[in-house]
Amino acid sequence: xxxxxxxxxxxxxxxxxxxxxxxxxxxxxxxxxxxxxxxxxxxxxxxxxxxxxxxxxxxxxxxxxxxxxxxxxxxxxxxxxxxxxxxxxxxxxxxxxxxxxxxxxxxxxxxxxxxxxxxxxxxxxxxxxxxxxxxxxxxxxxxxxxxxxxxxxxxxxxxxxxxxxxxxxxxxxxxxxxxxxxxxxxxxxxxxxxxxxxxxxxxxxxxxxxxxxxxxxxxxxxxxxxxxxxxxxxxxxxxxxxxxxxxxxxxxxxxx
Length: 256
Ligand code: MLT
Fold this sequence. Notes:
Rossmann fold; binds D-malate; 17% strand; 8 strands; 11 helices; alpha/beta; eight-stranded mixed sheet
């Protein structure tokens, strides 16, 4: 299904009935990542998956897809489905969007689960890495996608998850250059939402892998403690929904 949002189409799916749970993918991913989870989860509740702007089948809106703009797109889908309140799950960039959502729409937010994600803003080093990424996308989108997706797992896990990495790459090769750049630019300017998470009064969870090549689990553990979030530490890299499917399945079942 799709809706029009600020002139672009936003693709989404809804299955099942009961208390709504939104699943948001990360950068260079699409709602396809949730496919292995939907059948079982939607037996008990309504599961909504959305292709964020510039990803999957959703269109490009403007040069910078800020986390707030993406949260507005999510809200537009919820309004269309007449969903007043939902629990939020976000993988990585999807988690940044969940945080923007709970800040803008607290009345529409139930619990929040940040999977391989953080309330922190980019460090200065990471922000300048974003500029280099944009240059690479402009020069050689395909090579950039292959490299960026391989970098989500430590080298020791590459052969075990080769098929999944290849599927992610193939999916991302269909995304437009402008959509990829808009997401990188949006992540670069995102604000630190530690205080937002801290003052969120519903249940909150942060899951992080000790082997995540792009996120520092120790600093995120400190953030979880300072925001009163339940902290789940795994041996994963950055792709827990692939590496640790049965654990994620269990967690998604108890989130309310
Ligand atoms: C993601 O996996 O969504 C991104 O790599 C997160 C990021 O670059 O900060």
